[in-house]
Amino acid sequence: MIKKILLITLIGLNLIFLLAGQKASGQEPRGQMQQGNLRRNLVTLRALRMTQVLELTEQQTAMIFPELNRAEKEKAELQRQLALEIRNLRQKIDSGKSTDEEFEAGVQKIRELRHNIQAREQAFEDFLFSRLTPVQKARYIIFSLEFNRGLMERAQRLRQPGQKIK
């Protein structure tokens, strides 16, 4: 019964997250929309798996998931900015018309954005750990490593032609 309530709560929170974060149709290029959908699907999958693995209580779920959604929205925006800055830096390299100062400013902005993404991830993990039991913390560490490794392995297979995705 509690697992059903948690699942319904999680699905509801994710629907709110998805609806609040969507832009009007036609405002984003198709590739960005697909990338956004992929990101949201991965966030939802991670949240569902995390709920199962950590065996979160209803109270823990009610505290953790709003912060998780905020953290993911903030990271998505930072990653969008990072992609834009990387694209700008590539254009500067390709054009060959930029000054050393312009390159330095671009590199500094990218480093700052990467630092901000890592800081936001750490802030969420600190928040999460303040609400978990020691056993749940241990489960989270293992879950996080295995989940990320699994994503990397699947991405590697996608890059190889003719490979099936498991």
UniProtKB/TrEMBL annotation:
Annotated protein name in UniProt: Periplasmic heavy metal sensor
Superkingdom: Bacteria
